[in-house]
Amino acid sequence: RKLRWAFRLGYLSVLGGIALVGYNVYMDRHPEPQVEPDPSKKTLVILGTGWGSISLLKRLDTENYNVVVISPRNYFLFTPLLPSCTTGTVEHRSIMEPVRTILRQKKGRVTFYEAEASSIDPERKVVRIFDTSEIKGSTTETEVPYDMLVIGVGAENATFGIPGVREHSCFLKEIGDAQKIRKRIMDCVETAMFKDQSPEEIDRLLHMVVVGGGPTGVEFAGELQDFFQEDIKKLVPEIADRFRVTLIEALPNVLPMFSRQLIEYTERSFKEEKINIHTKTVVKKVNEKSVEAEVTRPDGTKETIVFPYGLLVWATGNAVRPVVRDLMSKIPAQKNSRRGLAVNEYLVVQGTRDIWAIGDCAVAGYAPTAQVAAQEGTFLARLFNNMAKTEALEEKIRHLSSSLNLEPGNSAEISQEIAELERKLRRIKDVKPFQYSHQGSLAYIGSEKAVADITWFNGNVAAAGSLTFLFWRSAYVSMCFSMRNKLLVINDWLKSKVFGRDLSRE
Ligand code: FAD
Ligand code: NAI
């Protein structure tokens, strides 16, 4: 009988789960009518549609402001699964969520402009924007005024001015980068198979070089080796012994933000997977078909090595975007800041009024990660919701105070109401400064293995291997933006496992 009850309970929870998913999907497709923007309210301009800005928008009570969002990307990109798109383990549209869908779920209507901000004038409180898309109308450049401005434009790829990087390598930051890499991997394979190709040329074409041993470079190298082992090798057996992946890192080890044991585990695992790691090796120049790097030998001597390559992926971290650099140059208080806009503990850009910065473009003392950007966005949403509530309460108190003179008969009741409102106001105004809560770091390292440094009851737990890989997958699928994203990603994983990855070159 117990078994029958357990079965019924399980059946009911599955039905409940399906009903909940169905309800969410239905509500997403049939949202409530929205409150129209009110011109008497403050204009809040948000730059960017990445981790920081979308987390802010998700929790912001948009009916309290005239919200304007400006970004050249009309979608949110779930970056943690971007390396998986380079090999087709996950399809690129599965990790994109259209901004229009996100904004339609808000109570108050939000204006969206697909454009790039080129400059910010903090004196006149305007943002200059221009259309970066292929199709242009008669107006391609204009200004947007703001009362409050949030800068969440992220960062661009660091090249350190090394010659040839921009011309010859692929980055891994945007969807277009992942598509370009996917296409090039197969192009290298097919070109290596071209009739009468020389052995040296085959070796060059099948040499995939990754520069930067941070999590982007490591995750990409792992995905690439999986692609080769699980699919390319089976379908193009002629290249089985010639395909090589090399990871070049300037520091003495890869993944410097992870604990020692996880670094060693990753390096061991890469060795088993036959991914060559060259540490203490700094790339100095990139040519069309080779990179030149300086390696420091154990005795301290330096030597230049040339790596011929077919595909070169450049993953050496972040640099400040031009719009941010331009704003920094206008603010004397930002003179000493190098890595982005220095902000105070409420994320206000130092030396400005009514400008906040979040995510990779802000320097608040934390690593440039999605986790930090998302928490900063959530913090600002709470702050702005509170500010709107404060203003509404102050207005109500002002109104009641003036009624005190007009209605002396009700003065006791009114005074009590004012006191109650003032208590509420004090509670709302008491917003604590931003504090980041680190949940841990996760990275995929290939061969269905992952490494994780998890924060657990004020301590740290380091884990690695196949179980950690399952944890990595479940953590990221649960973090995907929408139900649609979650289902698509799970479907992609099943598809690539059952049928293999798609080798066609689009
Ligand atoms: P972004 O998410 O980069 O968003 C910036 C937005 O601003 C974009 O919409 C962009 O189009 C827009 N924009 C750019 N220029 C302008 C302009 N001039 N005007 C207006 N808008 C503009 N972090 C983790 O914590 N965990 C991970 O697993 C992880 N994996 C990653 C994997 C990869 C491959 C990469 C590249 C990064 C990964 N990160 C990860 C880091 C994480 O993606 C970033 O820290 C995060 O995206 C920063 O959020 P953001 O909002 O500051 O910027
Ligand atoms: P990174 O800054 O973390 O690593 C870049 C690496 O490139 C550094 O180790 C640096 O020493 C090396 N490098 C720089 N110049 C070089 C040169 N000329 N030659 C050889 N090596 C060189 O950059 P990454 O990996 O792009 O990450 C950026 C941010 O995004 C980081 O904060 C990271 O934590 C976050 N991120 C997190 C992920 C995760 O948690 N799984 C995944 C991807 C990114």
From TrEMBL:
PANTHER family, per database record: EXTERNAL NADH-UBIQUINONE OXIDOREDUCTASE 1, MITOCHONDRIAL-RELATED (PTHR43706:SF47), NADH DEHYDROGENASE (PTHR43706)
Reactions catalysed, as given in the entry: a ubiquinone + NADH + H(+) = a ubiquinol + NAD(+); a quinone + NADH + H(+) = a quinol + NAD(+)
Organism: Chaetomium thermophilum (strain DSM 1495 / CBS 144.50 / IMI 039719)
Residue ranges of domain FAD/NAD(P)-binding in the record: 43-377
Domain External alternative NADH-ubiquinone oxidoreductase-like C-terminal: 438-502
Pfam families noted in UniProt: NDH2_C, Pyr_redox_2
Enzyme class: oxidoreductase
EC number: 1.6.5.9
InterPro entries, A to Z: FAD/NAD-bd_sf (IPR036188), FAD/NAD-binding_dom (IPR023753), NDH-2 (IPR045024), NDH2-like_C (IPR054585)
Gene Ontology molecular functions: NADH dehydrogenase (quinone) (non-electrogenic) activity
Keywords carried by this UniProt record: FAD, Flavoprotein, Membrane, NAD, Oxidoreductase, Transit peptide, Transmembrane, Transmembrane helix
Recorded superkingdom: Eukaryota
Family (UniProt): Belongs to the NADH dehydrogenase family.
Name the UniProt record assigns to this protein: NADH:ubiquinone reductase (non-electrogenic)
Key word NAD present: yes
Residue intervals passing through the bilayer: 5-26
Entry GO terms, CC: mitochondrion
Gene3D superfamilies for the chain: 3.50.50.100
